Amino acid sequence: MAGMSILVSRLEEFKCDANEAVSMKLVRDQADFEDEGQSFHPDMSHQIFGESESIFGYKDLQVSLYYSAGRLITYLGIKYSEKVSAQEFDGVIADDIEKQIAEQIPPGYMTNSDDFLASLDKEVNFKPFGELLHSYKVEKEGRDRHFEIYRADISVPGFREYHERLQTFLLWYIDAASYIDVDDDRWVFYLIFEKYHSVTHSQQMYAIAGYMTAYSYYAYPANTRPRMSQVLVLPPFQRMGHCARLIQTFYNDVVPRPEVLDVTVEDPSENFQKVRDFVDAKNCLKLDTFQPESLKEGFTDSMAKEAQMKLKLNKRQARRVYEILRLKAVDPKNAEEVRGYRLDIKRRLNKPFEKNGRDLEKLQRVLEEGEYTAAMNAITGEQKFKILQEQYEQQVEGYRSILDRLATWHE
């Protein structure tokens, strides 16, 4: 038993956190390749290395997954100080790191750093795919950085192969991500590129910063419902407002089309929902029915109709934006306005409880009286009040963060 404990302890020394071991990089020139300050780590790795997000069999492991910033030519490098020996550890072998990663990235990646560095000379010829929809600048660290958003589909020459390399980032940053069927021509892609001046080549060049996929669903009889699907801003470009710009550019592209009924989102994360709420609230501020005096009267069919006609928002999202903007209109020193807002939100939050009550009434015929009474009393009035208050406070806290962003946003 003592020998087994020693063996287990020794094997633990060869186990490492995959999220820490893997370093990623967008390489613009040879200097970036050696600059550790350009590296970033994945948010997750279970879609490549399993639920434990660990790699076994190496000490001081460093996995370098680098991409050229424009063309996304890929380099995979693996370094370590020691590898587990099957002879020493009774047949235990190390994980095949290259095989696990290679199963998720397109063929043609490089493992020789000299070959990868030599390939960077061709970056000067890279130009974004598709049609330019929007350009803007972001002030960062005292200087202006310039970005452009393009729309492309799979018919654009060369884009299919480019997308195969681009989508590999999803597995490291979006939980439950999956590769899409690009042969379905209803997919559209919106890509963000930074346009920068290369000192090495003395000209303007492009680097990928993020992208979004959108799918156009059919709606009877001759309409569509565009749905935002996968959205990713790469780590070096996060917290610059790019996601909001991407959503707004998408809206500008699809909302004017007469065949579009409304715009939806596929399983939005909490962070993405906040950005969408911000963009929708910013747009609704310009609508007649969303002005302060109207907001104080409560959510109306007129609000839902105007939001749908002019912004292609569905009623649920219009109601959510109404709650955000009504909070902005409430005078915190006016007790009546504060109380009216709180009751309005709680009435909406209370609807699931009311629905559960109706469902229980339907079951009354088949349940014995004792069982029905017990079910109805499962949530006491005090418990319901507490739940509603907690939900209300969480909702308002989230809304306030959106209003704070609205107050500081510059077009």
Automatic annotation (TrEMBL):
Residues flagged as site, Interaction with histone H4 N-terminus: 187
Main location group: nucleus
Record keyword Transferase present: yes
Domain Histone acetyltransferase type B catalytic subunit C-terminal: 276-327
Catalysed conversion reaction: L-lysyl-[protein] + acetyl-CoA = N(6)-acetyl-L-lysyl-[protein] + CoA + H(+)
Cellular compartment(s): Nucleus
EC number: 2.3.1.48
Keyword Acyltransferase carried by entry: yes
Residue ranges of every copy of the Histone acetyl transferase HAT1 N-terminal domain listed in the record: 15-175
InterPro entries: Acyl_CoA_acyltransferase, HAT1_C, Hat1_N, Hat1_N_sf, Hist_AcTrfase_B-typ_cat-su, Hist_AcTrfase_HAT1_C
GO MF entry, a single one: histone binding
A GO cellular component annotation in the UniProt record: nucleus
Region (Interaction with histone H4 N-terminus): 51-53, 215-217
Enzyme class: transferase
Active-site positions on this chain: 266 (proton donor/acceptor)
Record keywords, A-Z: Acyltransferase, Nucleus, Transferase
One GO BP annotation of this record: subtelomeric heterochromatin formation
Entry's family note: Belongs to the HAT1 family.
The protein's name in its UniProt record: Histone acetyltransferase type B catalytic subunit
Species of origin: Lingula anatina
